[in-house]
Structures are given as C-alpha cells and as structure tokens.
Amino acid sequence: MKLMSIGSVAWPVAFGMFFIAIWYLAIHLFKIPVYQLPTPDEIVLAGIAEHKTLLSGAIQTTIACVIGFVTSVIVAVVLSILLASSQWAYKGVYPYVLILKMTPVIVLAPIIVLWFGQGLGSITIITFLICFFPIVANTTMGLRSTDRNLLDLFDVYRANRHQEMLYLRIPHAMPYFLTGLKIAAALTPIGALYGDTIAGMGSGAEAGLGFVVVVFSSQLKIPALYAAAFTACAIGFIFVGIVSLLHWKLLRKWHDSFSLN
Amino acid sequence: MRQALKLIVDNQLRKDKSSLVSFEKVSKQYASGPQILDSIDLEIARGDFVALIGPSSCGKSTVLKLVANLITQSSGNITVGGGHASDSSEKIGYVFQDANLLPWATAKENIGLPLKLGHIPKEKRDKVAERLLSLVGLGQAADKFPRQLSGGMKMRVSIARALSTQPELLLLDEPFGALDEMTRDDLNEQLLKLRLIQKWTALFVTHSVAEAVFLSSRILVMSANPGKIFREITVDFPYPRTSITRTNPLFQKKILEVSQALHSVRGPE
Ligand SMILES: Nc1ncnc2c1ncn2[C@@H]1O[C@H](COP(=O)(O)OP(=O)(O)OP(=O)(O)O)[C@@H](O)[C@H]1O
Ligand SMILES: [Mg+2]
After folding, report:
1. Bridge partners of residue B169, in order along the sequence
2. Higher pLDDT among residues B219 and A1, named by residue
C-alpha cells in the first residue's frame, strides 16, 4: 500500500542537498556573477520580495493550466472513443489529427491570438492544444489495440458494441490513457507559459507566470527571474503529481507497472 | 395448427435426441490463403465428450471457432442445436487456449463476465461466481487479480467462467496445454467431476493423447494440409472416471491405439 518508500524520498533529498552544495561551491570558486547565477538564498529572498507578483502570476497560470488541461482531457477522450468506434471515422479523421499534431503550436499561436485576442482565452487554447495530442494519440492506440482473444471472448457471449467499449476497450486503454495524461500534465505549464508570452501582453495585473518571467528578465531582476522559474516548476510538479496519484489509484492492483506485494 | 404443433414437438424431440453440433462438408479458407479445412463431416450428440486431436496447425482451433460462430465457413453447413450456427440460441461456453482473463478484473468478476454481458444483475452474478469458485477449489481467490494467480488457478477461473451461463455445449481449446502433467491430471479429474454436476456436451481440443483418452467418449484424429477428420476412435470406459482409470491396462492400450493413429497421420518423422 505504500505510495513512496523511504528510499524514494531520501535519495532525491540527499541528492538535492548535494546539488545545492555544489551550486554554492561553484559560485564561490568560479566567482559567477549574480546576473548569471544567483545563490539559492538570493532566489528565496527575491521570491519573498516579489511574492505578490509571483502569487498572482501563479494563480493566473494555474487557471489557464487547469482549464486547458481538463478541457483537453474531455475532448481528447470523446474524440478517441469516436475514432475507436468507427473504422471510417478513424480512417477519415485520424490523418488530420496527425497533421494538426505535426503542426508546431508556435505556428498556430499567433493565429489563435488573431482569432481570440489577448488574454486568458487564447492562453487556455494554446495550453489545450499542447495537452491534446498526447492524450488522443495514446488513448486511441489503447482503445484500438485490444487483444484478439478477448474480443473473441466478448463475441462468444454476444456482447454488443456498447458493452465491448465499456467493459473491454476502455479498461484496456486505461494505462495508455494515463501515459498520455502524464505527458500532457508535464507539458501543461509549458503551454500556459508560452501562451503568456504570446497572448499575455497588456493584461497587467492578470499576468501569468510566463509574462512575469518576461517582465523580470527585461528589468534584469535575475534572482526574481529564477524564483519565477521555480514557481512554474512547482505548478508542473503538482500537475504531474496528481496524475501519478491517479495512475497509482487506478492501476496499482492489476497493471504490471506496479509490483506485486 | 396441428401441423405447427407437430413441428414444435418434432423439433423438441430432435433437440433431445439428435445431434447438438453437425458439420456437413464444411471447408474453410482464410481470405485468399490455403484451404485449412477440407470437407469436414462431424456429428456431436448431446452428452458426448469429443476430443479433437491432431498435428499442430491442422485446424483444430478453426473447428472450434466455427462452432462458436466466431468465423464463418467458406462452404458447407454447420448447425448447432438444430439451428444455423449464426443464429443458434444454444448456450455455449468457450475455454480459450490461454486463460484469456480480463487482467483488470478479479477472479469473481471474471467468472461473472458472461452473465454481466447477458444483463444479469450483480447479486445474482456474484452468487453464481462464488459457487463456481468453490466448485473449482478457489474459494479463497475470489478477490484476486489474474496476475496474482498461478497458471493452473487461472485456467480454473477460465473454466468456471465458461460454466457460469450453464452452457449446453462447452468448447475447450487446449485448456491445459501450458500446465505441468500433475496439474493437468488433477484438472482433468476436476473437469469430469464438474460434468457430473452440470451435464454439458464437450468438444475438447488437445495435444495430449492421455488426456484425450481419459476425458472423452469419442476421439477424432485430424490430419493436416488440408485438415480432415482422419479417424474416429471410441473410448468406452464408463464414467465417472477417476485416477484409478489411468492404471487400467485397457486404458494404456487405448492410449497406444490413439498414438498409433496420430503417428500415421503425422507420417514418419
Ligand atoms: N485468422 C486467420 N487468418 C489466416 N490464417 C489463419 C487464421 N487463423 C488460423 N489460420 C491458419 O489456419 C491454420 C490452422 O490454424 P488453427 O489455429 O486452427 O490450428 P490448430 O490446429 O489449432 O493449431 P495448434 O495446435 O497450433 O493450436 C494455420 O495454418 C493458421 O496459420
Ligand atoms: Mg489451436
């Protein structure tokens, strides 16, 4: 029942402390100036000084992340089920999904801003797009890769398509879906921060972390810039953490990604 | 009116006495591949325990899939329970070559799956599953997942699942092929015990001559390329058969007879 063993906590903590020690050492040995690499305590102090900006930035970014992520999960799952339910929907639509996937978001972002204007709407859509494809690709793959023998089993007992989807394809696709979800969760803050830099201008107090980063860097507030980067990391970490927890909850009993004991 | 009544009675009579499965000149070819089965004739009466034995890839699984209507024949006629295989209302239980369990479902849920697909409510399913679990000696394993079970236990769950709908006809595709001999003997005996409780008809595919002789009343020996029924051998030891049956010299003689038939099918090696 243990989610994390002592070792899985102790080792990263020990390594982190070692890393911070090297950090200090490097700054002193090589006399690295603060505008290149501040010390951890300078970053913490800057973070405290700028906590209002950072906090409101974090809230904005989190809102964009949550809305973008959740809607992309819903739309991606619905689309995947559709693609897996009909051979011709798959053949007809999936190539376009792939094409859209291969189109870099960097190219799409300015167009999205043209359509939806500056602000949270566009940022959320950019986040949505970045999360969307890993979920669709993985879930569709999972729904379509059911074991032939299990399909035969369902056939023997005259299962209808609805039962086959619900009791066979969807549970089988769960590990694939969760893998897609994990990738998407890690990409979410990237989408939101990138969205900020493209569509976050001029939104003032409602600036997300991406915008905060741009402002700090133009003001040469280097330790604060680092503090903003770590805040963004923390958001990503929480996202991935929640998805990992979900993964553990749903699969730990039966899936081989979790050991037996 | 009387005509219709007579027809119903006739059908009923036929259902009780005559064959449960019948193949008439059945041939099978997958897509544009070679002929797999060539003009097979086959009769299985209610109560029969028929073993199907033959060289690897001669088409044994294909025969089973045809009976279950998982695939359709290229030519010929198949009837199951008097009706066409495709719209037969006969209840079929199918035990697959490997246990073929849902990895995300517990032993109990796996056994209840056919009933779930038949829209039977959960309490009823659980009751049936629990009874079957204790029948196959897995009372303790109800809430275990397949990956927590040994190969033999998985196979027992798979058999219990096939029995959950109280089938008329049980199709078994080398159910014990992957097990060691002791477990296999043990499960063979258990299978015959289960048949004393639920009186299904069986079509059983195996590679093991001893298993075929021990279980069945009739053995069909198939030849390959294309698959044909080469010989039928009757096994007339009375049921119930137990481990003592194995020590009977006549039993050993029967094994020799089937082995020789199988050998002549395979040709000199
Ligand atoms: N879906 C399929 N498509 C094409 N060919 C198939 C298909 N299923 C089986 N075959 C071919 O039909 C032949 C008979 O297969 P089948 O599975 O019935 O053999 P088998 O007697 O059960 O063999 P084994 O003892 O190894 O299980 C094989 O040559 C196989 O390649
Ligand atoms: Mg086979």
Report:
1. B92, B201
2. B219
Q: What are phi and psi of B236, to 5 degrees?
A: -105, 30
What pLDDT does B7 receive? 54
Average pLDDT of adjacent 10-residue blocks, chain A of 261 residues: 67 92 93 89 93 92 95 97 92 90 88 91 94 94 95 94 96 96 93 90 72 91 94 93 94 88 66
Distance spanning both ends of chain B, measured CA to CA: 63
Place of tokens 């039962």: A163
**Smallest Cα–Cα separation from A232: which of A184, A186, A189?**
A189
Longest Cα–Cα distance of chain A, Å, equals: 75
Is the CB–ligand 1 distance for residue B239 below 6 Å?
no
How far from A168 is each of B41, B102, B117, B129, B169, CA to CA, in Å?
36, 8, 11, 19, 25
Q: What length is written for chain A?
A: 261
| Residue A60 exposed, middle or buried by CB count within 10 Å (0-12, 13-18, 19+) | buried
Chain mean position to CA B135:
19
In chain B, the domains with their CATH numbers are 2-45+53-266 (3.40.50.300)
* A256 chain-B contacts, CB cut-off 8 A: 147
**Position B10 pLDDT exceeds 70:** no
Is any atom of ligand 1 closer than 6 Å to the C-beta of B56? yes
pTM of the model: 0.87
Mean pLDDT, all residues of chain B: 89
CB contact under 8 Å between B117 and A150, yes or no, is no
For chain A, domains (ranges, CATH) are 38-259 (1.10.3720.10)
Q: Give the strands of the sheet with B92-95, arranged side by side.
A: B92-95, B169-173, B201-206, B49-53, B218-223, B228-234
User: pLDDT value at position B14?
Assistant: 46
